[in-house]
Automatic annotation (TrEMBL):
<feature type="repeat" description="TPR">
    <location>
        <begin position="203"/>
        <end position="236"/>
    </location>
</feature>
<dbReference type="InterPro" id="IPR019734">
    <property type="entry name" value="TPR_rpt"/>
</dbReference>
<protein>
    <submittedName>
        <fullName>Tetratricopeptide repeat protein</fullName>
    </submittedName>
</protein>
<keyword id="KW-0802">TPR repeat</keyword>
<dbReference type="InterPro" id="IPR011990">
    <property type="entry name" value="TPR-like_helical_dom_sf"/>
</dbReference>
<dbReference type="Pfam" id="PF14559">
    <property type="entry name" value="TPR_19"/>
</dbReference>
Amino acid sequence: MRWPDGARVRVAVGLFAVLFAMPVVAGSVHRAVSLGYAQQYDSAWATLARVSERDTLAPLVAFWRAALVQMLLYDSGDPALADSFHRTSDRALAACRERLRTHPDDARAHLLFGLTQLNRANCQGWQRSRLRAVMTLNSASRSLGRAVALDSTLADGWFGLAAIEYVRVNADRYALGLGLLGSRKRAYRMIARSLDGEGWLANAAGFMLAYMHKEDGEFEQAVEVCERILRQYPENRTGLRLLRDTYLAAGRWEDALQVAGRLDSSITRDFPGNRYGRSENRLVAMKAWDGLGLQDSALAYADRIIAWSRYERQVPWLDRYVAEARQYRRRCER
């Protein structure tokens, strides 16, 4: 087939534009991701907003826009952002479907579809829609499995599969009676394979590994992973929460209180109205003071949580924290 000269020029220019844009976009996305982990959300969003969404790049950009909204949702504790996350993740899924419509074996499109579904399942769990979360996880598992079958070097695919595998191992913690089958050893093999590669979600994989170690009572390993990530992002509140919770689970009460103090200052500075994050932090402080045998200090924190009971309908998970604080007070009064 002989193409007209003008068509050849347009095709050549188009291919050059896409090939030139890919490293530029990748660099912009890397900067946005790094800014997100540094909790500079406005700058991260502005960086992504300047990125052009071409056909091959639309799923990547759309995925990270949704992921940034989710980071802010959990960090701020503002439930109104849940709707924004679901809308932006809908757009990410649509971008992946459009790519897969014309390129059904695009491993990265399958990957991003699966990771978006994994994030949606996580958010559904946070919203306490547990059965919906499990159903969404199943969809994520299929897409991620397809992605690594097409390209076994996709580190982020192994991270996603490891997270799902570990949830299945501990399914009854999240939705009683599901009886899902999972392998703890397989989850660790998958997360190791993820961390051996070069994925966009290396820090998320690190947090997942630390969480797994904490849940399995391997506290020194969990602390080591948290501290490694916090050396790069010292104010990252996800890392600080995980480190705090690890110290609490390990019975390192004073260390847990020290990190809880850092968290409270950080949350109050950046999100002074965040009763979700602060009430959770106060619950940890209550337990740590109790572990030290200082019941009066523990009760003071319990009472601070109970004082926010009138906000239970507006603040995610606050009803659970208030109930636990009240239960602790009743136990002390016996």
